[in-house]
# Entry
Amino acid sequence: MAKAIPRATALENVMFSLTYTIPGLLRGAFATQPKGMDIVAKFDANRRANEFVSKLRVRYGGRSIWTRGPVGPVLLVLSQGDIKRVLSASDHVFSLASPEKVRGLSLFQPASLVLSAGEQRDDRKAFNEFVLAAGDRVHPLADRFLTVIADEMDVLLAGVGVGTLTRSAFDHAFARAARRILFGEAARNDVRLGNLLRALRMEANWLGLRPWRNRRNQALLDRMNAKIRSYAATADSGSLVGMFAGAPKTAKTDPAGQVSHWMMAFDVFGVGIMQALAMLAIHPAKAAEAAEEIRSAEQAHGAGTVAAVTAMPYLKASLLEGLRLWAPVPTLMRVTTEPIDWHGDKLPAGTNVMIPASLHHRNPQLAYADRFAPEAWISGEAGDDWWINPFSRGRGQCPGASLALLVGPAVLAALLRDRRVELLEPEIRAGRPLPLTINASKLRFGVHLAGPAAPAEPVPEARQAEAGASTEPSQG
Ligand code: HEM
# Structure
């Protein structure tokens, strides 16, 4: 018997917009707006949204529901089974190129994989996967990239000394590293390139509602693409653009057209690293575990080597936790390209499908929802759980994930080697449930030389009850 997809009531639509959609627009869909971020962090908007979505899950028995978004009906995915179904489906049927992504991303990555369809998407996907070494492969330029990271983190730390590490100082250092990885040595100080992208991303936040700026936007895009093409033509052999010559490609690929997405992704990536550092800073026992891992991996394999970094599962898990707790890609959007049977009802072609990943990552059903639990990744529990998708999954999975999971721990190791970091701002305490919204642009750390002993770590009350007074990581 056909079962109609439930519809949210008018009040529920308003509540969802107020707690999730509008705060998402305020903080910036394509580039963070610091002032908007401040407001949503102050009200911990995601906590309110999570409480509301938890009620919807109960009210509709875990079924996905029709809601009304700003541009029409949206299927809000509320169950683990439906997340799995959408993310495991064909990327041609559940396309990544949802209308608001087309509206925003086409300003600065009109030829990117995300916005491509049909054969062109398959073609560009193969190219992206080759150059980024997607899947479980270690990137062929991994040695080179780790040298770049070591250099730039050395420069950063020499500037910080025993003092304060700000987001802005980190961002500059990480952007230099990113430009060297993407384009090679000549791009190291090309700050203008990032500024062009930033201006276009800020404009993308307006979702195409300022058509009078089209000519200016096109001029910015042309300037950015000219720079990208000129670096690609130089093809520094130690960079990603240096791999273009050997990559599978056809007339449809547009190799240089793929790169502005990668540049944006490196920004997202930097946020994730800083969030993981913040968590290690407020959990001294876990920081001590990370420090011990760095010491023993580097003693066995040499500092900054690929072998050492791949022997740092705890740092990798910490990075993944930073991405789970405050997902830098908070919403996974899809649009259906053909009618689909959906639990006995039909989704028409053109249905917008929304997975609010940043809320599902904090589903109260997860034992470790609101605490920092690298151990949940070590045990495989978090990685196997379809509620949790920091890199998405299936055909739309991030092809940069394995590169990120190598470079990220290397950055954390460089920052934590022989040092202890203290979180100065914003105020986040380990002993209580972590906020669901933070203003990561405000992260600021005190950097100290590592002392002999880590101070005791506060334990959440719920865990004290479960596990006695132990301060050691549990299995989530
Ligand atoms: C911590 C860092 C990163 C995170 C959390 C992340 C997350 C994601 C997510 C969630 C998606 C899928 C979006 C969706 O399903 O709608 C995605 C796609 C993508 N990411 Fe990443 N990413 C990261 C780093 C990178 C890096 C470093 C690169 C390249 C240098 C990259 C390249 C891409 C590309 C090309 C896609 C499009 C995939 C497609 O259309 O099939 N990402 N990323």
About this structure: The domain at 10-467 is CATH 1.10.630.10 (Cytochrome p450). The first strand starts at residue 65 and ends at 69. The radius of gyration is 22 Å.
